[in-house]
Amino acid sequence: MNIELLKVGSLVMVIGMGFVFFFIGVMIYSVEFTSKIIEFIGKYFPEKIEEDIYSKPKKTATNDDEIALAIACVYSQTH
Predict the structure, then answer these.
(1) What mean pLDDT is predicted for residues 61-78?
(2) 26-62: b or e for each residue (b if 16 or more CB lie within 10 Å)?
(3) Shortest CA distance to 29 belongs to which of 41, 18, 19, 21?
């Protein structure tokens, strides 16, 4: 094994990992900074929230007919 190749390979690996670490750090800080800017702007220029008038209302009560049907199907399969 050539020790010189091992040294060069280790150096390239350390430089590459350092560059990736630096790039990810810069990216994290830039995303955080952008998030704070958008949050600041959002206080003064909020978005309008439109309600969907065509959506169906959500059911709040339990659907007893479907439960009874499921129990009947299971019971008829076993007997």
Answers:
(1) 78
(2) eeeeeeeeeeeeeeeeeeeeeeeeeeeeeeeeeeeee
(3) 21
**67 φ, ψ (degrees, to nearest 5):** -65, -45
In this predicted model, what pLDDT tens digit does every residue of 4-63 receive, in sequence order? 999 999 999 999 999 999 999 999 999 999 999 999 998 888 888 777 777 766 665 567
> By CB neighbour count within 10 A (0-12 exposed, 13-18 middle, 19+ buried), where does 4 fall?
exposed
The backbone torsions φ and ψ at residue 59, rounded to the nearest 5 degrees and listed phi first, read -80, 130
Residue 44 dihedral angles phi and psi, to the nearest 5°: -95, -25
